[in-house]
Write a structure and sequence with these properties.
Chain lengths: 325, 295
């Protein structure tokens, strides 16, 4: 348990470092935020700009601004959006759920199907399906995710209109909660497959590789030798170890998945964090961008710790192995 | 002291017989050779394509959104403004490849130096450098790169720097791991005993032996950098004055349902380029580590 406590303590320091770095980056960059905000109403009017600078504390020394910001973030206050004029925390929280839904569905789809395909092909390493997995994993990895999304839209939302093209809900729909859920699920199919395919490709190859290794290990030979049914050997004894690398990699890839989600959300107009981030970049909405950077890094840190814990639960050898592992 | 310390190394990665064996294995690997041929073709198209297909990709030449073979449309049709899609595909590679190349150079320089110093010296230097690496690793790469590009105005240079800054930690970790593995082996001890400086041991003794996995990793990062660049360009964060496959797709986002060819062909070009790097990287991996083949 000591190990986990130390990691949590270090992670807090890490998040603080992320805040300091991102804040410095955004505030020391060229370009005047006040001019951007004034852009709509009083562009060029020096009095308006001076007023905005005063309001936002942009004239304070850098370290004062930084200290104030860190203090606010510690209390859950990420500032106010320049564009929406709303608290950043609220803006982000409302966008968090759609992104979680998208990434969660895509990852679950990729892990479950990937491990099944991996196990299936590991038992028949020379079969055409097994070679197919190798080809598929290379193709899946090499396709730009936004392109996959557009192709799926052309195939399944334009030629045949099986799925909606964009958004998360049908605004015309007025039904009970079940109908609303089905509607969201219907909208979710294409984005989740788009994002999931990359990871499905990787995990099927990864789980095949680890399964091949596990199936040759001594304890599997023992299990077979004592006369266990092959099905039981594979699914009860070998699978557990073959899943470990997949879960670990999936956990460590969370940040990368957020990046992928950002592109997928843009393609499908999915109202998540990625969409908000892309819009804020173009509007130079620094508080929102900072908030999203901090929040997503924090999520990555939390998921890494959870992965560590899950890893220890699945594989008792690590717990025995001592804290350095 | 000028002892030819590199000669002591038992697992010379580049010139000795193992290198030649790796080359032989690589050439026998059909998928890897296909990747190399594909990449050569793409680079050739990017460098010399405009001699064979001399069309300005930014000029409006026909009615918009005509499919391949329709009316007076060129071979791959026209986009939403009536520009030649084939000309765009032929000329779009130079931005992607240049950006990826510069980004990967940056990744190699930052990642390898930090990783080498960290792994070789260990102690507090290692702890400090690895903490910095971790800091860059928890930031979602695309988001971080978007912010950098937006802050410093989109240009080929800012995009390449952003991708480089977001991608080096992986290389640093790999280099560090290799240095940790190699630094206590006999030939390194021999070099140290013969009085070689730290600098010489790091770069002339250990580094050449750490090369094989680094070459594999850098090849794969090259593919990843192409994907990265196309993603930024798709979002509108590429150099607005340059032709790029990702930008072509991004600009066609509103109209692609009326012209599948406007996004399909530029996407195929990105896909083929990334695939070629993946195939080469995989082939190199197998060639350096024949035991892992097929995994």
């Amino acid at each position: 348990m000591n190990h986990i406590t130390a990691r949590v303590a270090w992670s807090l320091g890490l998040i603080l470092a992320v805040i300091v770095m991102c804040f410095s980056l955004i505030h020391l960059a060229p370009g005047d935020v006040a001019i951007v905000i004034a852009g709509d109403s009083g562009a060029g009017d020096p009095e308006v700009i001076a007023e905005i600078r005063e309001d936002l504390g942009l004239d304070d020394p850098f370290l004062v601004q930084l200290g104030g910001y860190v203090g606010d973030v510690a209390q859950g206050d990420l500032g106010t959006s320049y564009r929406f004029n709303e608290p950043v925390t609220e803006l982000i929280v409302t966008r968090l759920w759609p992104t979680f839904l998208l990434v969660g569905t895509a990852v679950s789809f990729a892990i479950v199907l990937g491990v099944l395909v991996g196990v299936f092909t590991a038992r028949r390493p020379e079969s055409p399906v097994s070679h197919g997995v190798t080809v598929f994993s290379l193709t899946g990895y090499s396709m730009p995710v936004f392109w996959t999304g557009l192709l799926l839209v052309i195939m399944f939302a334009s030629n045949v209109q099986w799925f909606p093209v964009s958004g998360m809900r049908d605004v015309r729909l007025e039904g009970n909660w079940l109908e609303e859920w089905i509607d969201v699920a219907h909208h979710l199919v294409l984005p989740a497959i788009t994002l999931g395919v990359i990871y499905l490709a990787q995990y099927s190859r990864l789980s095949r590789a680890s399964m091949l290794e596990v199936l040759q290990s001594d304890y599997v030979r023992t299990a077979r030798a004592k006369g266990l049914a092959e099905r039981r050997v594979v699914y009860k004894h070998a699978l557990r170890n073959a899943v470990i690398p997949v879960v670990t990699v999936a956990g460590l890839q969370f940040g990368q998945m957020l990046s992928g989600a950002l592109l997928v959300e843009t393609v499908f107009n999915w109202p998540g964090l990625g969409r908000l981030a892309a819009d804020s970049v173009f509007q130079r909405d620094a508080p929102v961008l900072l908030g999203i950077l901090i929040l997503s890094s924090t999520l990555v840190v939390i998921i890494n710790i959870l992965t560590d814990i899950v890893y220890r639960l699945i594989d008792p050898r690590i717990r025995v192995g001592g804290p350095s592992q | 002291m000028t002892v030819p310390v590199t000669g002591v190394s038992p697992e010379q990665g580049d010139l000795g017989p193992p290198g030649r064996q790796a080359l032989r294995l690589f050439i026998r690997n059909k998928a890897a050779v296909f990747g190399l041929v594909l990449l050569t073709a793409i680079v050739f198209m990017t460098l010399f394509g405009s001699f064979f297909y001399d069309q300005d990709p930014s000029r409006i030449i026909a009615r918009p959104l005509q499919g391949p073979g329709e009316g007076d449309a060129p071979a791959l049709g026209t986009d939403y403004l009536g520009r030649d899609v084939l000309a765009g595909v032929v000329n779009g590679g130079s931005t992607s490849l240049t950006v990826a190349l510069v980004a990967v150079l940056l990744v190699a320089v930052i990642g390898v130096s930090l990783g080498a110093i960290s792994g070789y010296y260990g102690g507090w230097i290692d702890v400090a450098l690895m903490r910095v690496t971790e800091l860059f690793q928890v930031l979602p790469a695309l988001l971080f790169a978007m912010v950098i590009v937006a802050l410093f105005e989109p240009s080929t240079r800012s995009v390449a720097v952003a991708i480089g800054l977001a991608s080096w930690p992986q290389t640093a970790r790999l280099t560090r791991a290799e240095f940790l593995r190699l630094k206590n082996l006999e030939f390194v001890k021999a070099a140290r005993a013969s009085g070689a400086s730290d600098f010489r041991i790091i770069w002339r003794v250990i580094f050449p032996n750490a090369l094989p996995p680094l070459i594999v990793s850098i090849t794969l990062i090259m593919g990843a950098a192409i994907l990265f660049e196309s993603g930024l360009a798709f979002l509108g964060l590429g150099d607005p004055n340059s032709q790029s496959w990702g930008l072509m797709i991004g600009l066609s986002r509103q109209t692609f349902l009326n012209g599948w060819w406007t996004v399909t062909f530029p996407g195929l070009a990105i896909f083929a380029t990334v695939l070629s790097f993946s195939l080469i990287g995989d082939g190199l991996q197998d060639a350096f580590n024949p035991k892992l083949r097929g995994r």
